[in-house]
Amino acid sequence: MSEQAPGAVVAPPAGHAPFTASIPGCEGVPVSSSRAQEVLHPNRERYIDVAAALRDAGFVTCADLCGVDYLRHMDRALPEGVARERFEVVVSLLNHADRKRVRLRVQVPADDAVCPTLFYVYPGAENMEREAYDLLGIRFEGHPDMTRILMPEDWEGHPLRKDYGVGRVPVQFKDAPGPR
Amino acid sequence: MSSWNGLESLSHNFLTGRLEDFVKWSRRMSMWPATFGLACCAIEMMAAGTAEYDLARFGMEVFRPSPRQSDLMIVAGRLSQKMAPVLRQVYDQMVEPKWVISMGVCASSGGMFNNYAIVQGVDEVVPVDVYSPGCPPSPQTLMHSILTLHEKVRTGEITRRRAVSGAGAGVDLVAEVPGWVQPLPAPVRVGTPR
Amino acid sequence: MSDEHPTDAGRPGTTDVLDGERVPGHDDFERLIEAETEEGAQELGLASSTSAVELLIEQGGVLRLPESAVLDPGAEDARFGEDDTMILNLGPQHPSTHGVLRIMLELEGETVLRSKPVVGYLHTGMEKTAEDLMYVNGATNVTRMDYLSPIHNELVFALAVEELLGVELPPRATWIRMLMCELNRISSHVMWAATNGMDLASTTMMIFGFRERDMVLTFFEKVTGLRMNHNYIRPGGVAAELPDGWEDDVTAIVDTIESRIDDYDELLTGQPIFRERTEGVGVMGPEVALALSATGPILRAAGVPWDLRRTMPYLAYDQVDFDVVVGTVGDTFDRYAVRLNEIRESIRIVRQVLERMPAGDYRIQDQKVTPPPRARIDESMEALIHHFKLFTRGIEVPEGETYVAVESPRGELGCYMVADGSNHPYRMHIRGPSFVNLQSVPPLLRGALVADAIAILSSVDPVLGEVDR
Q1: What pLDDT, on the 0 to 100 scale, is given for residue C4?
Q2: Domains, in order of start, for chain B
Q3: Nearest-angstrom CA–CA distance, C197 and C336
Q4: β-pairing, C237-238 with A31-34?
Q5: Fewer Cβ within 10 Å of end Cβ, chain A: N or C?
Q6: Which residue of B has its CA nearest to A168?
Q7: By CA distance, what is B67's nearest residue in C?
Q8: What domain count does chain A have?
């Protein structure tokens, strides 16, 4: 468990109870609200169970899965009870019948950047998890083909990490000021 | 060609001219491009080949998928690190004489993507003859660059440059083929194709 | 193992997939599922009671080999899989792929068994670049992802930024955006029809399609200044007002295209060779499509009436009247028919926009978001300073994160944006529909011939710019 960086705490949505609280399997998961969308924050251990519970409750499609590296923004707003880490895996699920979206944000520590795979719950997450591994270095345990997808297979480093430079080549202009 | 006075001279029933001129004429009048469209520029390249802009009037609407049968490689789009070896391989598979047009700013210099993923100019991988600016270049710009290339082939400027730098087949044109490299002609106005 | 087909035993519900003339090649499918594995004869459960996930795993359509497996011509073992199958590389330079897509095919004769799409040949690092650029010029980067429908890319980026900013746009800005989006959808689908026709060897369709597309692109050049990659939809509205006479231009476009769609119908739908090459080829049912997160025409052709413009409306789509086109079988022909009819629906929407375009501002006049009108710069010092600050320092977006999605011609195009209060995004992730739709390719190609593989791939309509970003 990494150090608890001090940061903003966001209260759960005021007024009505979050609709996910009534879904079996999602009890006790911290919930926040972001611009009128509900966001669940399961920890790594409960992540797959929560996703499976949501799938059984009608969220049949995984719309998006991506990773975020919060190295330069560790003081982001998170609800109470969520241990903040460097990486986050963000999953966006879609319910066709009720026309709702829900988001899951799972904290993944930097020194143990492993997360269980969503492939057996949502096979559509396969390519997206490979991309998160390729660009951010988050490994997904149990994924059938955990290899790079966008960069060449022998590339070293994970480009989207905040400590990986953009790779800008200095351009020679005549008498040019400024860094660009 | 020296004795070409228009249709009147057809009463002779034969044409004369220098071999080099005939070769250059045939090379530029049916220069077949290889399909190497990578990104957005590929769409404009396809548009240049269709009815509105019509590359067929230059003998070039036949885009050969096989590099062995094509003369010109129009690198249309941004070249990523993973694709660079493929580009080189396709270029090597083309048979001499071959030319390369780098279409768009991403192919010419990396364009707006100055980062880890894009090769900053395809001339780091293949020798380029004409650079075509634009993002994407409109079909008219592409046609202008093609005509510039035709002009260069017509004046022999390309063979002159290759004779000096030895790029390509490694043939020493200056020594082996007398008369191939002509003295510098009058300045070429590349904006007026013939 | 009995000689009878295992599903002949009168069990309900299993024969509809394998039965019938709509699914040619089902003999191969039967052979595949009856084959013995080395553990002996396997008995499969009812297809109707097996979840889509398990069906996909049973089918085993994805070839799990490393990308470099076939690169060494000298290595004999690499090119031959088990049981005398051959591994063939399709691409990345190939006339029939839509961009630099490479597919590794495991072939038994001409039949494709397993396949693996290999992408990354156009990876541009756009998500990393987006963290460097400010919000005001982020649209220039995003617009080059899906280069056939650049307006939708800019739209999703602008919607994400406006969601984080919490601003509401004037109605004219919304309707102008809707007009541009639908025109872009028309030009993208017409372009798809052109390249699809070309892949199926109809060069006439290619010429027809580009002729229509050029009309739309000329209009775009008039409005935005560029034929492609417009950088027109920016956070806060659109970049400039529509030029005078735009109604006549748009009317000419839709009238012409509407009549020419009937030409395409006759050219392709009325042609028996096209019908035979596309009907029954590459069938995908709704459960499998949903499990693979397919969206767009692939999902609608499979029978799921999901179109974000109707189900989760954005812009002003809840105020215009249009139908969501849905297929029945989920084969290549259905995907073609869905796209063709979507052109007609888009024309319907454009006509309604022509009649009902509201007057007003083309962008929100908020100092924190948009620059002042150009004419004011001559008069007012504050306007000049404001303009200068906005184009050098950009706009600041308060902290937060959001996911917005629009319906691009290829499916659900989403943008997940994390803002940290500065003038450039902390993280911008674009959910490219083609990237996710490519996962449908191995199940679709399973059991098809190589020529069908081209038709199927073309009907999935991948645009590599948004696959690789």
Answers
A1: 37
A2: 17-176 (3.40.50.12280)
A3: 10
A4: unpaired
A5: N
A6: B115
A7: C93
A8: 1
In eight-state DSSP terms, residue C266 is I
Compare all CA atoms of chain C with the CA of A136 and give the residue at the minimum distance. C128
Interface of C with A in 428-447 (CB under 8 A): 429, 431, 435-436, 438-439
Instruction: Say which of B36, B52, B65 has its CB closest to residue C210.
Output: B52
- In this prediction, residue A79 carries a pLDDT of 79
C192-218 pLDDT, tens per residue?
999 988 888 888 888 888 988 999 999
Q: Which residue has the tokens 């509900």?
A: A38
Is C67–A147 a contact, with Cβ atoms under 8 angstroms apart? yes
**Cα distance between residue C124 and residue B79, in whole Å:** 8
pLDDT for C354 beyond 80:
yes
374-413 in C: which are within 8 Å (CB) of A? 399-403, 405, 412
Nearest to A166 among B110, B115, B120 (CB): B115
CB within 8 Å: C141 and B82? no
Residue C430 half-sphere exposure toward CB, CA atoms < 13 A: 37
* B83: closest chain A residue by CA: A152
Fold held by C139-431 = Cytochrome-c3 Hydrogenase; chain B (1.10.645)
How much is the pLDDT for A173?
66
Query: Does any CB of chain B come closer than 8 Å to the CB of residue A159?
Result: yes
B-C C-beta contacts closer than 8 Å? 92
Q: What angle separates helix B40-49 from helix B139-155, to the nearest 10 degrees?
A: 70
Q: pLDDT tens digits for C105-147?
A: 888 888 888 888 989 999 998 999 999 899 988 889 999 999 9
Is the CB of A169 less than 8 angstroms away from the CB of B110?
A: yes
C-alpha span between B123 and C342 (Å, rounded): 42
Q: Region of A94 please: left (phi>0), alpha (psi -120 to 50) or beta.
A: beta
Residue C152 predicted with pLDDT over 70? yes
- pLDDT score recorded for residue C70: 59
Contacts of B110 in chain A (CB under 8 A): 169
Domain ranges in chain C are 6-50, 139-431
The helix or strand, by DSSP H or E, that contains position C354, with its residue range, turns out to be helix C332-356
Q: What is the ipTM of this complex?
A: 0.86
Helices (H), A16-111: 47-56
Helix, strand, coil percentages (3-state) for chain B, rounded to 5, are: 45, 10, 45
pTM of the predicted model as reported, rounded to 2 decimal places: 0.84
With CB atoms and an 8 Å threshold, state whether B80 touches C148. no
Alpha-carbon span B29 to B40, nearest angstrom? 27
| Residue A16 CB-density burial (10 A; 0-12 exposed, 13-18 middle, 19+ buried) | exposed
Which residue among C129, C141, C465 places its CB closest to the CB of B40?
C465
Q: How many whole angstroms separate alpha carbon B72 and alpha carbon B3?
A: 30
Mutate to test the interface with B, among A135, A168, A172, A180 (most CBs of B within 10 A): A168
Residue stretches of chain B with pLDDT short of 50: 1, 168-171, 173, 175, 185, 188, 192-194
Which pLDDT tens digit goes with each residue over B87-128? 988 888 888 788 899 999 999 988 888 888 899 888 888 888
Question: What single DSSP character describes residue C148?
Answer: T
Cross-chain Cβ contact B116/C128 below 8 Å: yes
Is the CB of B115 less than 8 angstroms away from the CB of C228?
no
Residue C198: HSE in the Cβ half-sphere, 13 Å Cα cutoff: 18
Q: Which residues pair with C412 in a beta bridge?
A: C407
Query: Residue C355 is encoded by which pair of tokens?
Result: 């009649």
The residue-averaged pLDDT of A2-28 equals 55
pLDDT of residue C86: 81
Contact flag C66-A152 (C-beta cutoff 8 Å): no
What are the tokens at C3?
A: 């000689």
CB pair distance less than 8 Å for C210 and B86: no
Query: What is the span of the domain harbouring residue A100?
Result: 1-180
Nearest CA in chain B to C465: B39
